[in-house]
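Feature request disguised as a bug report, sorry. It would help if multi-protein outputs had a clear separator. Right now it looks like this:
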Amino acid sequence: MVTHTRDEQLITETSLQEYFQNSVSDALENQKVEAAADTIHYVVNLLTSFSRAEALFERTRDGVMIRPLALLYAEAAEGVTPEERNRALRRLGDVALFISGVFSQSLNRCVVDIDYYVAMGGSAYSHLSETMRATNHGRTLSEIYCELASKFVAFVDVLSEVSEGAGCSNDADVLRQYEIWLRTGSARAAEKLRAVGIHPSRNASSRLRH
C-alpha cells in the first residue's frame, strides 16, 4: 500500500496552491477583473481546498454527493450560534461559487440552473459581509465577502477559465469516479480524479466507509 508522509502532502498542497495562484492571476487579467489581494488569496485557497475530494463531496444514504444549497441554507437559518450560521453561509457561498465556475456546463441539465447558484452564493457572501463587519476582527473578511458578493459572476467566469485550463470534466463524471474510488480503491478512478485536480485521500476513504 502506498503511504504519503506529511511532507509529501504539504508539497502537493503547496504545488496546487502555486498552480491555482498563477491560473487565477492569469484568468483575472484575461477577464479584466480587478480584485483585492486578500480576495484573490481566498479564491486560491477555495480552489486548493476543494481539490481534495473529501472537502467537496459527502457520503450520504443516497450515495456520494455535494450537499444541496437548500440544505446549507437551512443549516444557516437554523444555526444556534452566529458561528454555526456563518460557517454554513460560508460553505454555501463557497460551494455555489465553485460549482458555478467549475461545473457550469452541467448545470443546464439540472432542475436548477446557474442563476440559482449565483443568487444563493452572492446572497450568502453578502450576508456574511454584513455580519462579519459587526465583529472586532472581521473587517478584512467582511471586505472579502463584500467583493465576492458584488463580483460573483465575474469570479464565476474566472473559475470557468481556470477549470477549462485544467481540463475539468462534468460533475456527474467526477462524482461517479469518486464513488468508484471510495467503494473499490480503484487506481484508475483515482488517476481520473487527479487529472481534473481532485486528490482522493485514503484517510478520507476510511472515514467515509464507516
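(second protein starts here, but nothing in the output says so)
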Amino acid sequence: MSHTKTLILATHNRHKVEELSAALGKLRIDIRTLDAFPQVGEIEETGKTLLENALLKARTVHQLTGLPAIADDTGLEVDALDGAPGVYSARYAGENVSYADNVNKMLFELKDIEDQNRGAKFRTVIAFVSSKKELWAEGFIQGFISQSPTGKRGFGYDPIFYVPELKKTFAELTGEEKNEISHRGLALKKIVKKLKNEFQPKGKESE
C-alpha cells in the first residue's frame, strides 16, 4: 500500500482553506496549508489573468516545497464597470485593505446604477501543479450586486453578491449551499474529477 500523498493549498486565507478542504477531502490525501511551510513567503500576484495568478502561486509553492500544490484566483466581474474589478478584486480598494473596504468601494461605484443593471459574474480558476503535470479548471456564477450588504456568512464580496434563483446573497447561504452552486465550488468539482487520476492512479486517465 502506498503512502498517503500530500497536497499543499497555496493560501493562508482560512475561508478559502475551508472551502478547498471540504471539496478536496473526497480525495484520500494529506492536505496541508502554507502555514506549515514558512519558507514560502508572500506570493505577489503579478498575472494579468486569473489563470496566470493561479498558476503562478501553485508553481511557486511547488518549486519551494517539492510537493504538489493547488491554488486559486477569483474575480468579480461587474457589467456596469466593464468587467472590473476582475483580477484586481482582492485589492479593489487598494493594497492591504479589508473585505469591508472592497465592498464599500463597490457599493459607492454602483450607487447610481439601477437594480436591473447591476449584473455581475463571480469567476474562479483553480490550478494544480506537480512535478509531472499542470491542470486547471474554471467555474463561474451569474448574479447581481445588491444595494447593501446582507448576511453574516462567507467572506469577500459575499454579502453583496445576490443570487436571484435563491433570493439570497452568498453571505446568507450555509457553507454547503454555497459550495454547491458557487464559482469556486464548481471549479473545485472539475479539478477534483481531474485529480482523482493524479492521486488514484488505478483510475482511467481523463483529459
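Even a blank line would do. Unrelated, but nice: The first strand starts at residue 6 and ends at 9.
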